[in-house]
Amino acid sequence: MSGRELTLIQAINAGLREAMRRDERVMLLGEDIGKNGGVFRATEGLLEEFGEDRVVDTPLAESGILGTSLGLAANGMRPVPEIQFMAFIYPGFEQVVSHIARIRMRSRGRYTAPLVVRVPYGGRNRAPELHSDSTETFFAHTPGLVVVSPSRPYDGKGLLLSAIESEDPVIFLEPMRLYRAYREEVPDDYYTVPLGRAEVVRAGHDVTLISWGSTMRDALKAAEQAEQEHGWSVEVIDLRTLSPWDEETVFASVIRTGRAVIAHEAFGHLGLGAELAARIGEECILDLEAPVARVASYDVPAPLFQLEDWYAPDAGRIVEGIHKVMTF
Amino acid sequence: MSGRELTLIQAINAGLREAMRRDERVMLLGEDIGKNGGVFRATEGLLEEFGEDRVVDTPLAESGILGTSLGLAANGMRPVPEIQFMAFIYPGFEQVVSHIARIRMRSRGRYTAPLVVRVPYGGRNRAPELHSDSTETFFAHTPGLVVVSPSRPYDGKGLLLSAIESEDPVIFLEPMRLYRAYREEVPDDYYTVPLGRAEVVRAGHDVTLISWGSTMRDALKAAEQAEQEHGWSVEVIDLRTLSPWDEETVFASVIRTGRAVIAHEAFGHLGLGAELAARIGEECILDLEAPVARVASYDVPAPLFQLEDWYAPDAGRIVEGIHKVMTF
Amino acid sequence: MDVSYVIHPAPAADEPKPSGMDDALLVHMYEQMVWVRQFDRRLVALQRSGRIGTYPPVEGHEACQVASALALRQQDWVFPTYRDTGAMLVRGVPMERLLLYWNGRAEGLYIPEGVKVFPIAVPIATQLPHAAGVAWAARLRGLDEVALAFFGDGASSEGDFHEALNFAGVFRLPIIFFCENNQYAISVPYARQTASETIAQKAQAYGLVGKRVDGSDAIAVYQAVREALAEARQGGGATLIEALTYRYGPHTTSDDPSKYRPKEEAEAWRERDPLLRHRRRLEGWGLWDEERQQALERRVNEGIVAAIRAMEAAPPPNPDDLFDHVYAELPPRLVRQRDELRARLAQREGAER
Amino acid sequence: MDVSYVIHPAPAADEPKPSGMDDALLVHMYEQMVWVRQFDRRLVALQRSGRIGTYPPVEGHEACQVASALALRQQDWVFPTYRDTGAMLVRGVPMERLLLYWNGRAEGLYIPEGVKVFPIAVPIATQLPHAAGVAWAARLRGLDEVALAFFGDGASSEGDFHEALNFAGVFRLPIIFFCENNQYAISVPYARQTASETIAQKAQAYGLVGKRVDGSDAIAVYQAVREALAEARQGGGATLIEALTYRYGPHTTSDDPSKYRPKEEAEAWRERDPLLRHRRRLEGWGLWDEERQQALERRVNEGIVAAIRAMEAAPPPNPDDLFDHVYAELPPRLVRQRDELRARLAQREGAER
Ligand SMILES: Cc1ncc(C[n+]2csc(CCOP(=O)(O)OP(=O)(O)O)c2C)c(N)n1
Ligand SMILES: Cc1ncc(C[n+]2csc(CCOP(=O)(O)OP(=O)(O)O)c2C)c(N)n1
Ligand SMILES: [Mg+2]
Ligand SMILES: [Mg+2]
User: Fold this and answer.
1) Could you give the 3-state DSSP secondary structure of residue D180?
2) Residues of C with a known catalytic role
3) Given C77, C134, C163, which is nearest A64 (Cβ)?
4) Measured in angstroms, how far is the CA atom of residue D157 from the centroid of ligand 2?
5) Which residues of D touch B (CB under 8 A)?
6) Confidence (pTM)
7) Closest residue by Cα to residue B268 from B296, B226, B240, B306
8) Nearest atom (ligand 1) to Cα of C126
9) What is the C-alpha to C-alpha distance for residues D314 and D322, in angstroms, rounded to an integer?
10) Contact indicator for D225, D67 with CB cutoff of 8 Å
11) CATH class (in words) of the domain with range B3-187
12) In this model, does residue D138 exceed pLDDT 80?
C-alpha cells in the first residue's frame, strides 16, 4: 500500500475524503467547515469535491447541529458533525447525552445514530480562553457513546474510518496540539484501525504507562527519559478508545509489570484515570507493587495560555509519576 | 432547640423558608415553583409568603434559568434555581460548566456566583423515562462547583442552609426517592451542616462502606444485614458533599478497617466511586486487605421503571460487595 | 409573513361541508377521535388503580392530534411528545405498546417497522432538531417525506425550538412544526411563557410561514396541515402551525390543575370540545347518529380491553433488556455486567424456591 | 411591533448637528473611536510579531462599540464579546489588562471595581442570559441600572439568544440587546445564519421592540441606545438593536477572510468607515481639523506605548494563579496540588541555577 507523510490534521482530512468517496451517505456539517475548510483546515477541499449538500456550513448552533445530526442519521445519512472546540459541545450536551447516546435503547434498536462528532480538544496551543478543555469524562460516563482519541496520523485516519463505519455514535476527540506536530507515513488507501483496542506503542517490563490523545507524546518522552535517567523499562499503552476501553490489554500489561501510571490532560478528579486506576485496583491488586499513580491536570479550570504548561502534565511530571511507583 | 418530625422534602421546604426569612437576597426561580409549589412541593407556600419577585415561575428554559441565575448572583442576589429533574439540567450544561463554575476564576474574584441549583435526582420512583438520572460525575468533574447530596431530613435543611450561605455555586442533589421515605426530627430554627464534611453514620471496624444521597438507605440496610448474617462490623460513611469531598474522614476510616466498599446510584464507569477507589488506592494501599469494591448501577442508560430495581444497586448488591471484600 | 388566524369562537352547527374531504374521511376522523378519547381515559383509569405509571392525558387535544396525523401520508414522519398518544395511535403505534411504555416496560419502547413515528420526546423541545434532521435527510436523499413535530407552548421557550426552526428556515426543510398551544406548561400560563402575542408570529424570526388554527376544530387542523404539507413538498419549506387548545385534565396523573387554573376556564373550554363539535357537524350532514355512536364505542372498548389484556399478559421483564440496545454489539464490560445480573437473579430465584 | 430602519447609505457631508448632543460629546466620540482603532491595530501588530496570542480585531465596528458605550451611564452594565475591545476601553477597562488578557495572562482577567463590565464572553451568546440576570437583579433591588449586551449575527442562532430575549420579554427587564451584525460569523454569511430578513424583526418573537441602525454612524447608534436606555428606565423593558456593520479585517488573527469574502465587498464597506464619516461631520461643524487630529494621534500613541510597556514589564506568571480563584476558600485537595506545583517549580528553578 503506498502512502504519504502526513500530519494528523492531513490524515483526518484524508480520512474524511476516503469515507465520502466510498459511502455517499457520509456528509459533514458544522460551523465554517465548507467554504473556509474548517478553522483547523480539517475539511479543506471537501466542499469543492463533494458539493454543498454533503459539506454543509450550518448556523452557529451546536444543539441544532447535533440534534439534526441525529435526525439525519436516523433517516439514512452518516453525518460527521464538527464541533469547533470541545467547550462548544456543551450547548448541545443534552442532545448528546439524552438522545444520541440513547436513541438505540429508546427505540429498541429501531432507530440508531451512526454518526461521528469530531471535536478538537486539549490545550497547550496558545489558544484563547475556553478553547482548551479536555473533558472526555463527560462522554466516557455516558453509556451508548463510543469515545475515541487518536494520538498519531496513522490512527487519525484509521480510527476515523472505523468510527464512520460504526453503527454506534462516536465522539472523536482530536488533540489540537498534535494536529501539526509531526508527520508520519499514512497509507493512501482505505484502511481501518479497530475501535475498542488499545495499542502497546512501546514495550517494557518495569512499569506500564497508559495515556492517550494529547498527552501521548509527553508519555513517550517520559518513558525515554525514565529509561535513560534511571534505567527503568517503561511499557507505554496508547488507549485510543476511551470508552468502552480495552481492559484486556491494560490488565495484561499491568499484571506483567506490576506497576501502573496513567497520564492524561483531563482534570485528575474523575478523569478517566480514576476509572482505570479503580479497575486496575480491582483486577490486579495482587500483582501491584505500588499504588497506581495518576498524572493529570490540576483540578482547576483550564487557565489562560501562559499558565497552561504548569496546569497540564508534561513529560517531567509523568517521569515524577513513574518515579513514584518505581520507588514506592 | 425545638423541632418537628419532617420528611426530606418538608425539611427542604423549611430550609428555603428559613433562608428567605433571614436573607432578603435569597430568591427562588424555576418551572412550576410558584403557584404550583413545585412538582414535588418543595416550594409550597413560599410564593404566598414571599411574593412574586422572590418566588418566580420562569419560562421553560433551563439555560435561561441557569444563565440568568448567574447574572442575578453577580448583581447581588442569592438565587436558588430549581431544575425539575436531573436530566433537564443538560440543556443548561454550558451555563453551569463554562460560566457558573468559572465566573470567579474568569474575573479573578471580581464576580462570583453564590447560587444553589436544586436538582431532584435518582430513580426507583416509578417516574417516566429520563426522569431518573444520577449523573453527579458531570458536576463533580467540574472545578469551581460544590456538589452536595443530603440523604436525610436533618441534613436536607442543614446542608441547604450552608449551601445558600456559601460564596461558591452549589449543585444540590436531592434524592427524589427519599423525599417522603421517612420522617426525622428537624430543628425549627436556623442551623447549618457544614459543607465538605462526611459523616460517620454507623461505627464499625471490619469494613468501611461509603455512600450518599439516594443509595444511603440501602447502604445502611446492607450494613445491618452484613452484621446480622455474617457478623461483620460495617462502618458507614455518608459522604454528603460529593465535591470537594472529605478525604480525611474517608481515609481515616479505611485505614482503620482495612477494607472499603463504595455504593452509589450513578453508573459505575466514572461514577464518583472511581475517584474514591483511586484515591483510597493511592493513600491506603498498605492498609488495604482487599481491593476496594464498587457497587453501582450498570453502565447502561437508566431504564424504564420496571427494570430500575435491577439496574441500580440495592441492599442485596451492596451486601455482595461487602462479601467480596470480606472474603478476598 | 403570513400569519393567518382561523379561530372559530364556537361550533357552527350549519356549516357547509368542506371541499376536498370526502365523507369517509370526515367520519374516520371522528371515529379516531373517539378511539383516542376512550383509550386516553382508560390510561388515566389504569394509572389511578396503580396498573400503570404516571401518564399525561390527551383529553381536549384530540382534534390537534388526530386531524394532523390523518393529514399526513404513510411515508411522512411524526415526532410526538409524551402528550401525543392520540397521534401515535392514529399513526399505527399499537395500543399494547403504548400501555407497556406507560407501564414502565422496555418493550413499550419499540415502534413497529413501517410506522414512521419517533420515540416520545421527554426532554422538552429536543425532538424539533431531530425532526429537522429527518426532513433534511429526506431532501438530501430525494425522498418524498415530510416531518411533523408536535410540541407545546412551553416548548417554544427552549433553545432547541429556536435552533430547529432556524435550521428549517435556512435549509428550507420539508417540515411542519405543530404547536399544541394549550396555554399552560404544567402550571405556567402562556403569559409567563412569552411576551409574544402568538406562537405563530415567532415564524417571522426564521423566515417561515406562521399559521394559527382553532385546535378544537378537526377540519381546520386537517386543512392547515394539508396546506403545510403541500408547501413542504413543493420545496416551500417549513410551516409553523399554532393550534389553540386546552387540556381538560391534569398535566399528568400526578398533577392537580386546581392549584393553578380557574375552574371556569376549563369549563368554558369544554364547550368547545372537539369531539362534540365534529359529531354535531357529522350529524348535520347526515353522516352520524346515536346508533353508529354506540356501535363505535363498543368496538373501541373491545379493542382497548384486548390491548390491556395483552399488556397484562406480557411475560415478566427480562434483565437482558437493560443491556441489549446500548451498543450495536455488547462490549466486554457490559457482557460481564449482564452475566453478573443473570447469575444474581438465577440465584435469588433459586433461594426463593 | 416597531422595527425602525435608520440606514444612511452613505456619509452625509452637510448634515445638521443632532439635537441633544453637545459638541464635547461629538468630539469625544470621535476621539474614542480613534483611540480604539489605534489600539486595535496595535494589538494586531503585536500578535503578528508573536508578542500576544490570537486576537479578534475590531476595525469597522468602532461606531457600534464606542457610541453605544458612551450612551450608557456609569452605573450601567456592559457584556462584551471577544470583539468588543472598543467598548471595554471606553468603559474604562485599562489597556494594560486587555493586553495581558490577549497575551494569555491570568492578570488580564481582572476588571477593576467600579467598571461595570463583565468578563468577555467566549462561548457564543452565553452572555445574553447573564445580562438578563443582572438587569433582573437591578430591577428587584430597585437599582437604576441597565444592562447592554453585545453579540454578533452568528450569536442570534444560539439557543441562549432565544432564551435570554424571551426572559427579557416576560419579565420586562431593563436591558439592551445590541447586535453588531457584521454579516459574517467567521466565514458563514448572514443568509446561512438565518432566513429572517433582519435580526431586528426577531424582536417580535419576544414582544420586544426591534430597531435597525446604521452601525457605521456613531450618532445614529448613540441615539438608538439612548432611546432604548430611556425605555428601559421607564419600565418599558428591553430593546433589540441591530446595527449593520462590517469587520474590515479577519475574524481573528488566525483567520483568512479572502477564503470566504469577496474583496470588493470589504472595499465597499471601507467607504462607510465610521471614523471617516464622523470626522467629516465634525469638520463640517468646525469641531475638528488636521492639527487636532495629529495631536490626538500622538496622545493616543503615547498611551498605548505605555500600556504595552506595562504589559511587558509584568512580573512572570505566578503558579498560584491557577488555584487562587477556583473557590472562595481553597479546599485541601487543591492546597495539596498548589503546594506540589510550588515545590516542583522551586526544584526546577534550583536545578536550572
Ligand atoms: C428540558 C425539560 N425541562 C423540563 C421538563 C419537565 N416538564 C415536562 S412537561 C413540562 C411542561 C411542558 O409544557 P408544554 O410544552 O406547554 O406542553 P404540554 O405539557 O402543555 O402539552 C415540563 C416543564 C422536561 N420534560 N424537559
Ligand atoms: C458556543 C460557541 N460555538 C462556537 C464558537 C466558535 N466561534 C467563535 S466566534 C464565532 C463566530 C461568531 O460570529 P458572530 O456572532 O457573528 O460574531 P463576530 O465574530 O462576527 O463578531 C464562532 C463560531 C464559540 N466561541 N462558541
Ligand atoms: Mg402547554
Ligand atoms: Mg458576525
Assistant:
1) strand
2) 247, 251, 260
3) C163
4) 10
5) 77, 106-107, 109-111, 113, 118-119, 122-123, 126, 128-138, 140-141, 145, 147, 159-160, 162-164, 166-167, 170, 324-328, 331-334
6) 0.98
7) B296
8) 1
9) 17
10) yes
11) alpha beta
12) yes
Q: Which helix (H) or strand (E) holds A283?
A: helix A272-284
Q: What is the pLDDT of residues A266-302, one digit of tens each?
A: 999 999 999 999 999 999 999 999 999 999 999 999 9
> Do A3-187 and A199-326 show the same overall fold?
yes
pLDDT for C350 equals 86
What's A41's DSSP letter? S
d(CA C343, CA C337): 10
Distance from CA of B149 to the nearest CA of C (A): 23
Each residue's pLDDT tens digit, A106-160: 999 999 999 999 999 999 989 999 999 999 999 999 999 999 999 999 999 999 9
Architecture of the domain whose range is A199-326: 3-Layer(aba) Sandwich (3.40)
Residue B281 is nearest to which of A269, A275, A292, comparing CB atoms? A292
- Does the ipTM surpass 0.90? yes
Rounded to the nearest angstrom, the gap between the alpha carbon of residue C154 and the centroid of all alpha carbons in its chain is 15
Q: How far is Cα A309 from Cα A317, in angstroms, rounded to an integer?
A: 11
* C126 reaches D (C-beta below 8 A): no
H-helix segments, C13-153: 23-48, 62-71, 85-91, 95-102, 127-140
DSSP C242: E
SS3 (DSSP) at B243:
strand
**Residue B318 has which C-alpha cell?**
451492596
Residue entry with cell 454489539: C329
Whole-number pLDDT of residue D12: 58
Residue-range domain boundaries for chain A: 3-187, 199-326
d(CA D34, CA D44): 15
Residue whose entry in the numeric block shows the C-alpha cell 412569552? C194
C-alpha cell at B223: 450494613
Which burial class, exposed, middle or buried, applies to A93 when counting CB atoms under 10 A from its CB (0-12, 13-18, 19+)?
A: buried
Asked whether the beta carbons of B283 and B183 are under 8 A apart, the reply is no
- Beta-carbon contacts of residue C109 (< 8 Å; ≥ 6 apart): A105, A106, A107, A108, B304, C101, C119
Spatial CB neighbours of C44, under 8 Å, sequence gap ≥ 6: C55, C57, C249, C253
Distance of CA B159 to the CA centre of its chain: 10
User: Contact, D200 vs D242, CB < 8 A?
Assistant: yes
The three cell numbers of residue C352 are: 426463593
Closest alpha carbon within chain B to C344: B317
Is residue A47's pLDDT more than 50?
yes
- Indicate the average pLDDT of chain D: 95
Counting ligand 2 atoms within 8 A of each CB, the residue from D128, D162, D163, D186 with the most, and so the one to mutate, is: D186
Alpha-helical segments (H) within chain D: 23-48, 62-71, 85-91, 95-102, 127-141, 159-170, 190-193, 218-233, 263-270, 274-284, 290-312, 332-352
| The CATH homologous superfamily of the domain defined by C23-317 | Thiamin diphosphate (ThDP)-binding fold, Pyr/PP domains (3.40.50.970)
Residue of C40, C124, C253 best suited for mutating to test ligand 1, as the one with most atoms within 8 Å of CB: C124
Distance, CA of A202 to CA of C189 (rounded, Å): 64
**Arithmetic mean of pLDDT, B236-248:** 98
Query: Which amino acid appears at position D206 of this protein?
Result: Y
Q: Could you give the C-alpha distances from C105 to A87, A102, B279, C46, C312, in angstroms and in order?
A: 36, 16, 39, 15, 11
Instruction: Outline where C108-189 has alpha helix (H).
Output: 127-140, 159-170
All 3 cell numbers of residue D14? Answer: 452637510
Other C-beta atoms closer than 10 Å to the C-beta of A203 total: 10
CA atoms of A78 and A308, how far apart (whole Å): 36
Q: Is D185 in the pocket of ligand 2 (CB under 6 A)?
A: yes
DSSP state at residue B230: H
Out of B99, B131, B230, B264, which one is annotated catalytic? B131
Q: Which residues of D123-139 are buried (b: 16+ CB within 10 A; e: fewer)?
A: bbbbbbbbbbbbbbbbb
